[in-house]
Design brief:
The protein is of the alpha/beta class. It has a single domain, classed as NAD(P)-binding Rossmann-like Domain (Rossmann fold). It contains eleven helices and seven strands. The protein has helices spanning about 15-25, 40-50, 65-80, 100-115, 140-150, 155-165, 175-205, 220-225, 230-235, 245-255, 275-285, and strands at about 10, 30-35, 55-60, 85-90, 120-130, 205-215, 270. A seven-stranded parallel β-sheet has the order 3-2-1-4-5-6-7, with helices on both faces. Helix 4 packs parallel to helix 7 (about 175-205). The longest helix is centred in the middle third of the chain and has 30 residues, at about 175-205. The radius of gyration is 19 Å and the shape is globular.
Length: about 290
């Protein structure tokens, strides 16, 4: 009997709220390779998906900036003759880590992941990088943006430190403010990565886009909201006045992976209920 090869999707941050939703949405038509930082939740997810009839062909736990983890993932991909979809949901927020770790995970690991998978893309493949509506906030630090357009290393991170702490002058928790600004800059960098790599991916017959979620009701999203006094007001003021769900993001990912989105690349899709429009309006008011 002739067996047709099922498409392969690699999902990072698979144990998180958005990662789980994406895995279940794509897993209906694609085989899955899953990765996340901790082995316990990852194996629990893999076992649960398998018991529900999904096909998980491989898992790899660990830091995506680690060569060994990237090698395990690319080996698993090559064993299946390349990937058809990469959905990179892994990332850190200011309530989870300090500014240096945020830059390392959100930017460095993303750059290294893309470097690794670009050799195993199948024609027609799609890469989706999860950014954030925070990436549409302009902190007015163009030089910092330029630094983050370079391959990230310790020297670049050290060069960013004066921008992060200089912008926070005037009181408050300097470390917390630096972490918040690092998050904004890191997500701006993710959006630009999709723009910058679109040409090279196109030569391989592939597409790459970013998706910017708004306030999404995941464990991480709720934790972030608890740390912000403005969350409730933002939800009430945004055009779609409710929390987003992980499935809102998974549905957008499913569309972008599909043939219907075949002419979309090198851009960002905001799935934020219109929240980023509020931020732009506030920026405009401050400029007056």
């Amino acid at each position: 009997m002739l067996h047709t090869r099922r498409p392969i999707a690699l999902v990072t941050g698979a144990s998180g709220g958005m990662g789980r939703a994406v895995a279940r949405r794509l897993g209906g038509t694609m085989d899955l390779i899953l990765t996340d930082i901790a082995s316990g939740p990852l194996e629990e997810l893999s076992t649960g998906l398998a018991s529900d009839g999904y096909t998980v062909t491989a898992t790899a736990a660990g830091d995506l900036a680690d060569d060994a983890v990237l090698s395990k993932l690319t080996d698993a991909v090559r064993a299946r003759d390349g990937i058809d979809a990469l959905v990179h949901t892994a990332g850190l927020s200011p309530v989870q880590a300090d500014w240096r770790k945020i830059l390392g995970v959100n930017v460095l690991a993303t750059q290294r992941l893309l470097d690794a998978v670009e050799s195993v893309l199948r024609p027609g493949a799609t890469g989706i990088l999860i950014a954030s509506m925070a990436g549409h906030v302009d902190p007015g630090l163009g030089e910092a943006d330029t630094l983050l357009d370079r391959p990230l290393d310790d020297a670049v991170i050290d060069a960013l430190e004066p921008f992060l702490f200089g912008a926070g002058k005037g009181g408050g928790d300097a470390e917390a403010m630096a972490s918040q600004l690092a998050y904004v800059l890191s997500k701006r960098a993710v959006i630009r990565l999709a723009e910058q790599r679109a040409g090279a991916w196109g030569k391989s017959g592939a597409r790459i886009v970013s998706v910017s979620p708004g306030l999404i009701h995941t464990p991480m999203g709720v934790k972030e909201a608890e740390a912000s006094p403005h969350t409730k007001a933002t939800i009430e003021a945004q055009p779609v006045s409710r929390w987003g769900t992980a499935m809102d993001i998974a549905s957008a990912v499913e569309f972008l992976v599909g043939a219907e989105a075949g002419f979309i690349t090198g851009c960002d899709l905001r799935v934020d209920g219109g929240a980023s429009l509020l931020a732009k309006a506030q920026e405009g008011q401050r400029a007056l």
